[in-house]
Design a protein that fits this description.
Distance between the termini: 23 Å
Strand content: 25-35%
CATH architecture: Roll
Helix content: 25-40%
Largest sheet: 5 strands, antiparallel
Number of helices: 4
Structural class: alpha+beta
CATH topology: Nuclear Transport Factor 2, Chain: A
Number of domains: 1
């Protein structure tokens, strides 16, 4: 098996900015009321549903690769999961995206499996370790539905 990608820096698993703003608009001053894990799952789903256009190679512009202009996953059309090698390549791409843009995860392992019953669907299983607590792990399964050149990533279970 390919080793899991990891990150060396740490951060706290705190409520997201969106969660804090929503709570503040409801008159709640304590961010402790927010569910940071639910916010993380939502943000991972949003990241996977945001596509980045093919841009300059990362080796040419290192800072650009981590900027908001490159935020998102590869376009669905570039994610062919027909063979085992293609599934592994897509999984490694998504691991890099998650580690680059989701700082609340310290290590990530993505497994891609096609859905044999529905040819326009595949499953992503994401196993990760939270950066604020190396003993806390996250496991989530997402369904990727390809329809008419578009894809929609949805949380199946966590």
């Amino acid at each position: 098996m390919t080793p899991t990608h990891t990150r060396n820096r740490t951060s706290q698993l705190a409520p997201t900015l969106l969660d804090r703003l929503v709570l503040a608009s409801q008159g709640v001053s304590s961010p402790a009321m927010a569910d940071p894990l639910a916010g993380l799952l939502r943000d991972v789903e949003d990241l996977l549903n945001t596509w980045t256009a093919a841009g300059p190679r990362e080796s040419d512009f290192e800072e650009l690769a981590s900027s908001i202009s490159c935020y998102g996953s590869p376009t669905p059309g570039s994610l062919d999961v027909g063979t085992f090698d293609q599934q592994q390549a897509v999984a490694r791409q998504l691991e890099k995206v998650l580690l680059r843009f989701e700082t609340r995860l310290e290590s990530v392992r993505v497994t891609v499996t096609p859905d044999t019953d529905r040819p326009t669907t595949c499953r992503l299983r994401i196993d990760g370790t939270l950066a604020d607590n190396a003993g806390t792990t996250l496991t989530a399964e997402y369904s990727v539905n390809y329809r008419q050149g578009r894809a929609q990533v949805e949380l199946v279970q966590s």
